[in-house]
Each structure stands twice: as structure tokens, then as C-alpha cells.
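Late entry, written up from scratch paper. The run itself happened at the end of the previous shift, but nothing got recorded in the book at the time, so transcribing now.
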Amino acid sequence: MVDLKGQMQEIKPQIKQSFDEILDSCGFIGGPHITRFQDNLASYLGVKHVIGCANGTDALQISLMSLGLQPGDEVITADFTFAATVEAIALLRLTPVLVDVSSEDFNISIAAIEKSITPKTKAIIPVHLFGKSADMEPILAVAKKHNLYVIEDNAQAIGASYKFSDGSLKKTGTMGDIATTSFFPSKNLGAYGDGGAIFTNDDKLAYKIKGIVNHGMYKRYYHSEVGVNSRLDALQAAVLNAKLPHLDSYNAKRRNAAKKYQALLTGVAGIELPMTLNSCSEFSCDNCQCHVFHQFTLRIKNNKRDALATYLSSKNIPFGIYYPIPLHKQEAYASESYSDTDFPVTNALSNEVISLPMHTELKEDQIHYICNAIKDFLKS
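Output as recorded:
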């Protein structure tokens, strides 16, 4: 599904040099590589504060901790996403409120958010799924109307942008009160191990988050609040520093691969192709980063998804099914408050989606091979 080895070749000398510096100095925790990466990423995003942490799940948990929410407070998020989003809510004894997603882009439904707000609702976590921004303008309007925090889960869409109705563009991760990301190796900006970060333009929240990630300390051995041990290490920061200048080109390569998939699979019966992007026609806006294609996800109709998966395996073609079981049906997060009829889109997606290989090193002949295999199966 990803080719990290191929991607590494261009940046290997820089990474080796940085690793040698870190190994010679033994500065594995903190230090100039961390500071440099945080500053560089903040500049790239156009956000005031970037705080590194150990992984994307910690980033979500720490963000929620910084808001001072209390057990029982409700946090709305999407039913169709990876479990880490709801996991962080549950770990803090907050109440996750799962809602359905849009059939157009698989992101959280604005109507479902509004329907689920109660006096206990304190925050919304929109997930920018598969590389495309959630519809942030109405989400921010709903949050402002009801005095709710917005935490963007940007683990799958770093480098993507959102276009507001006035024509302005903002990077995902810069619009809410706080945003989080993961640097898991397969992400668009991935480390060579675990890593994560938190973004905010709020100085007070940034100060609090910086303490929480380091055991609640602002002064060594003086613990001002309950914190955690969650720090991005210098080796991972060195990898991310080497990759960050290439992020836009990495994302452009993903969009180019998506164009080729789209061209080869358009009009094939039994397939519903992914939505491209709002205000953009057929991938025409090469210079904007509205969609960065963390995944290229098809919907396979007529109950043929699982059979297609078996067929692709027989052809040695990797694939992913993200996600086969909705969160509201997961044992850990099931609740009597949920009715299956409230999640028609999520339920359908879980039975239909399949993601094709998507990375910076995809070759045209590989894409042709994959698409021809899909066409052959659907014709049979």
C-alpha cells in the first residue's frame, strides 16, 4: 500500500547526517532538531504553535485534556473513522457521540452534528478523512452558535487546504481551536516510527499543552497540573524535517496517481469513484492542495466488495478496507443510545469501501495493472 523504501532514497543522505549529529550529541529527547521541526511545520501551516508528542492518539487525548472538560461532557465525532478518535474521548471518561457521515466525501455530516447537540455537548472533532478536509465553514458556524470547541483530527490530511465561501484558503489543522496529527510512517508526512503533533493559534492553550506533554511540568520537578509523558523524539523529528520540504510534491504525486486511477476507472459499472474536491473540477487545480489523497477509496456496489478483495489478493495487489465495522458497532463503543437507522451512510460504506495502493512512488504500469484487474473482475 505504501513504498517507504523508494521514498527514502532522495532524502537518505540528509537523514543519515542528522542521525549522526543526534547520535554524537546523545540529544535524543528535545534539542535543536525538535525545535527546528516544530518551527518549520508551524511556518508551513501558517499556525502559531506546533507541539510535538509521541503519537496521534496522544495528540487527541492531550488536546482534550487541555480544554478542562469533565467526565460526562459530550464530544461529537464521526462514526466512520479509525478508532483512535473516539478512543481518546473515552479514555478521559468523556461521552463520545458518534454521528453519520456524508455520502459525498465520507466526512462528518453537518446535519448529523446539529441533530446531536445537547446541553452536555462541549466539543466537535471533525476528521479530515482520506486526505480531504471536512466541510469546516458550517462546522465552525455551528460551534460558534453553541459555544463549542473544535478539534481537527488532521492525521490523514496534512498539507490539504479548505476553501471558504469568500475564496480564502486555509490549511487543514489551522481552523479549529486545536488540531492534531499523526506521523505514523504511512501518513502523507510520516516518520520512521511513531510520532504526533498538536497545532493551535491560542497562546494559552499552547502553554497548557506544552506542560501536559511533559508530565504537567513548566519548571523541572514542579508539576502544575496532571500531565502525561508524550514527547516527539529527536530522531523522528530529523526524519520529518527532511521530508517536510517535499510534502507538497509528495501530495502532488498522490493527486497525479489519483488522476490516473480516475481516468482508468471512470464509467466502469459497479464502481463509485471518490469525490474529488469542493469547488474543483476533475482535479483541474494542480496548484492547490484541496485533496491530498491519503487513500484512494472506491465504493464497490452489488455486494461485490469482499469478492473483489479476494480477487485482488490472488493477483498480489495490496488493498485496504477502511473501515469494515462502524464505531457504533464496535464492542468498546457500542451504546444503547445509538440506533442503527441513524447511520445509513456509514453502514453502507463499511460494506462497500476498498482502498487502492496510494503513495508517492506509484508507477503508471502499476496503476494500469491494478485497474485492469478490477475491470476484469467486474466484467466476470
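Residues 4-25 form the longest helix (22 residues).
(Scratch paper discarded after transcription.)
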